[in-house]
Amino acid sequence: VQLQASGGGLVQSGDSLRLSCTASGFTLDYYAIGWFRQAPGKEREEVSCISSKNGGIYYADSVKGRFTISRDNVKGTVYLPMNNLKPEDTAVYYCNTRIRGLDYWGQGTLVTVSS
Questions:
Q1: Under 8 Å CB-to-CB from 71, ≥6 apart: which residues?
Q2: In sequence order, what are the residues at sequence separation of 6 or more whose Cβ sits closer than 8 angstroms to the Cβ of residue 7?
Q3: pLDDT exceeds cutoff 90 at 53
Q4: Average pLDDT over the chain, rounded to whole?
Q5: Which one-letter DSSP state was computed for residue 8?
Q6: How many CA atoms lie within 13 A of 18 on its CB side?
Q7: CA distances from 43 to 16, 19, 39, 100, 106 (A)
Q8: What are phi and psi of 87, to 5 degrees?
Q9: pLDDT beyond 90 at 55
Q10: N or C end: fewer C-beta atoms under 10 angstroms in the chain?
Q11: Is residue 33 a contact partner of residue 96, using CB atoms and an 8 Å limit?
């Protein structure tokens, strides 16, 4: 099981980025995928999650209306377009899935938003 997160970068406040999480070693269709972030000196927090079956979606209040999660099971990828980025969105972003009670994490991609 592997998750590969990509798409981070250095942007200015108000800009957009699209993160991608590419899955391998398992069938993405059957599992929920979550995006988490960890800012320097802070705990890791869940940003968004998309379920496997009915497409149920969760967003943290801090990103509602700005981030949109989606999945392409054929490509084995979950996307997180992020609009109107703010300096407080600066963090390392990780994707996650849980299979048979075990958590799997991607390596993280750094998003830095300058004011």
A1: 28, 33, 50, 55, 77, 78, 79
A2: 17, 18, 19, 20, 80, 109
A3: no
A4: 96
A5: -
A6: 10
A7: 24, 20, 7, 25, 17
A8: -55, -30
A9: no
A10: C
A11: yes
